[in-house]
Each structure stands twice: as structure tokens, then as C-alpha cells.
Write a structure and sequence with these properties.
This protein is flat. 62% of the residues lie in helices and 0% in strands. It is built from eleven helices and no strands. 22% of the residues are buried. By secondary structure, it is mostly helical. It has two domains: 18-68, Arc Repressor Mutant, subunit A, CATH 1.10.10; 73-223, Orthogonal Bundle (Tetracycline Repressor, domain 2), CATH 1.10.357.
């Protein structure tokens, strides 16, 4: 639901600051953002926004980068790469959950890839310090990015059931019980996996992906998630 627009002021233009404009842009969502919609949301004239940003593209690029200001990236304390990478998944999950437009957006060209680069560079630096080459580190980041992205979608889907004071597992099992189970022998065995929570599915994906990655770079997969690098 879109937040309520601020009351427009008359006479002397209302003073704004960059953070207020960028916060408003993120609130509205970058995918459908226009200068007119943002001006209405902030209770100012469109011309006021152009005093701060000379184009919609410039505004969107700034807003996309600004959205990172609330994301707390994991601290590199020398922990095993798998622990740090897992914490990055959780940070990305927060970013996607707080900014649904990153999930629904199909055309991020207006605000470029600055958001991606600012997330990736410190990660690759930390991986390099652990003897993992940038290309391998990038491959690992691609894994955790997709896991975080997929988990955010799954979390959003499962959250819909909470509005009805139920869980996805309860609803799925109830609907499955109405079927002729003899027609679904494979699903009968797999239903417990189908009804895992979003966090359980995330942990399963992380475990499988990281084990594969460890083997690919010649490391012992049994050392995953140990504190020592």
C-alpha cells in the first residue's frame, strides 16, 4: 500500500533535503517512480525536485544507492568464508524484503548497477583475503545473491498466509488431504520438504551450494561453517 502523500504547501516552497527526497523515492518504489508521483508524495511541485536532481535517471541512481544506507553488511572478523557468505545472504534478504522493488523490477537500467557493485566489492575483497580469487568469489556471490533473492520471494509468499492466521504448511497439508493420495505417491513422501519454512529452505540451499563451491576450489567441505578460516 502506498504511503499517504504529504499535504501540499502553498506560497513559499517547502524546504527539502536530499535524504528526504531519496527516502520518499524508496518508499514509492523505483520501478514505477516518476518525478510527478514523488513530488505529490512529498507535497511539493515537480519543479522543486529538479532543483535537486536534473533528471529522473539521476534521482533513481541516487535513490538506489541511498537504499543501501540502511543495510548492515556483515563484519569481516576473520571468520570462515562460508560463515561470512551465509551472513551476506541474510543481509541481502533484508535488502530485498525492505525494498520489494528489487524483486519486482525488470528494468534496472535507469539506476544502473551501482547497488550491486557496492555490495559486491567488499565481499570480493574479503574472499581474496581468504585465498579465493575474484572470479571464484564472484561465482560465490552469484550463488548467495540468487539464494537471497529466492528466499525473499518465498518469504513474501509464505507471509500471505499469516494474514489469515495460518501457515503455508497448514494450508498445503489441508489441501493435500483432500486429494486422492494414491494419485500422488511421490508427493506423499516429499510433502515435508515442500512445506519447509523459507529459512529452512534457505539453509538447505546454502548448505548444498557451499559444499559444491568448496569442492570446486579444492577445500574440505567438512570445514564449512567453522569459525577458523
Amino acid at each position: 500500500m502506498e504511503t499517504q502523500a504529504k499535504t501540499a504547501s502553498y506560497g513559499r516552497p517547502r524546504l527539502l533535503n536530499h535524504d528526504e527526497i531519496l527516502d520518499g523515492a524508496v518508499e514509492l518504489g523505483l520501478e514505477t517512480l516518476t518525478m510527478k508521483r514523488l513530488a505529490t508524495h512529498l507535497g511539493v511541485g515537480t519543479a522543486t525536485l529538479y532543483q535537486y536532481f536534473d533528471s529522473r535517471k539521476a534521482l533513481m541512481r541516487a535513490a538506489a544507492s541511498h537504499s543501501l544506507s540502511g543495510v548492515s553488511l556483515p563484519e569481516d572478523t576473520g571468520q570462515h568464508w562460508s560463515i561470512l557468505a551465509r551472513d551476506y545472504v541474510k543481509s541481502l534478504l533484508v535488502l530485498f524484503s525492505d525494498n520489494p522493488t528489487y524483486i519486482t523490477s525488470i528494468n534496472p537500467t535507469d539506476y544502473g548497477f551501482e547497488v550491486h557493485f557496492k555490495l559486491i566489492e567488499p565481499f570480493l575483497t574479503s574472499m581474496k583475503q581468504r585465498g579465493i580469487a575474484p572470479k571464484d568469489g564472484m561465482r560465490l556471490f552469484n550463488m548467495i545473491g540468487l539464494i537471497g533473492y529466492g528466499t525473499a520471494i518465498e518469504a513474501s509468499r509464505q507471509r500471505e498466509f499469516e494474514f489469515h492466521d495460518e501457515t503455508m504448511e497448514v494450508v498445503a497439508r489441508r489441501q493435500f488431504s483432500r486429494l486422492d493420495v494414491s494419485e500422488f505417491p511421490m508427493m506423499s513422501e516429499a510433502l515435508s520438504e515442500f512445506t519447509l519454512t523459507d529459512e529452512e529452505k534457505m539453509d538447505s540451499l546454502i548448505d548444498a551450494a557451499f559444499r559444491t563451491f568448496a569442492r570446486d576450489i579444492g577445500q574440505d567441505e567438512n570445514q564449512l561453517f567453522n569459525e577458523a578460516t
